[in-house]
Amino acid sequence: MIKKNTSLSLLLLVFSAFNSTYSQEDDNCDGARYRYLVFDDFEKIEDVVYGSNIAANGSEVELEMDIYLPSGDTVTNRPAIVVAHGGFFLMGGNEFDDVVPLCEDLAKMGYIAVSISYRLGIDNWLNLQESMQEAVLRGVHDGKAAIRFLRKVHAEEGNPWGIDPDRIIMGGSSAGAFIALHNAYLDLDEFPDIIDITQPGLGGGLEGESGNLGYSSDLLSIFSLSGAIGNAEWMLGETTPIVSTHGTEDDTVPIESGSIQFMFISVDDADGSEVVHDVANALELENCFYVFEGAGHVPHQFSDNYYDTTRAVITGFNSRMVCPIYEPICGYYDITSPPEIDEPPSICPQDIEPNGMVDVNDMLVFLANYGCTGACIGDFNETGTVTISDLLSILAIFGSYCE
Q1: Domain co-membership, 348 together with 314
Q2: 377 and 291 co-located in one domain
Q3: Considering Cα of 46, then 50, then 54, then 55, what sign does the dihedral take?
Q4: Which helix (H) or strand (E) element contains residue 180?
Q5: pLDDT tens digits, residue range 53-86?
Q6: For residue 146, is it within any domain?
Q7: Overall pTM surpassing 0.85 (yes/no)
Q8: How far are the Cα atoms of 38, 191, 352 from residue 234, in angstroms, in the given order?
Q9: 346 and 315: one domain?
């Protein structure tokens, strides 16, 4: 016969294992987090070096990121959103004003937001088409290195920023959107033939040589603000979900198929957001496309109203990517008004310590009464004795609200 104290030890082991499993699966999807502003402030870690590579001018450059974290948060498995700035691959940085406000707000919604620098520069002004395609490839390589860096730090340095490596998103504004799109949908055999991948800074195949090799650069989803892809057919066979915004009067990056313009000079042809989402719909990719009627290039950078809508479109879509239980949103909503999260009243007998949820407190009461005979708390099966079968009744709904 198994002694009572041995049985209690076994029960505690079962309880411990079950509780551990539940905690790992809990992604903090409470209906407010990742969709609304649930933190008052954020912390910022500046200029973290994530890699290096050869720039367009032949010099070796360090690649840096700023990391934004929700202030006072204790969660350690938070989704990360990597954001790349705009600037036509000529200007900008991780402090550029087209991405900083967004990173600050994402952190206050519970994400780890990461603003990255990437290699800038045009090496041949007499051949802008080739130079621009090379610039995009440098950005893709750097973006992949940044994603790998987050996974490397998680694996090798004890996860100091509390990142969930399985929930990493990438997005960007203008040139940064080009980086995100090509990061998700460009394959090695689709590199344009005019790019000389043997020159310094362009080697390393699809992953590049900007650092942190050996880790995945896969993405949960992407977002594109006034972006485009060289050829939307590159999306065929891909599965990464996408959300985009674009102005109908964008005269820099076309919303449809057309020519990218720099200082009234046609640089290269590309497929804009409308074409990208036509293909996404044909492929049945989960996607959201929000059109700003009458707006120009990157309208969120110059208007509070456009910014508020852009932010909502990004987080309405991506909060569902990180929390599949959330309802889809593709449009504006007020991110400053999170819903009240009420625990429903208990109507199940397993909720011994009534708080609307079967949890650790109920398990402890059960363990205190294990083996009791007669009228005992925890005899859910009404056999006259608190037994293993009663424990199973608790475990069947442990960690869930009573309904």
Answers
A1: no
A2: no
A3: negative
A4: helix 175-185
A5: 999 999 999 999 999 999 999 999 999 999 999 9
A6: yes
A7: no
A8: 38, 10, 57
A9: no
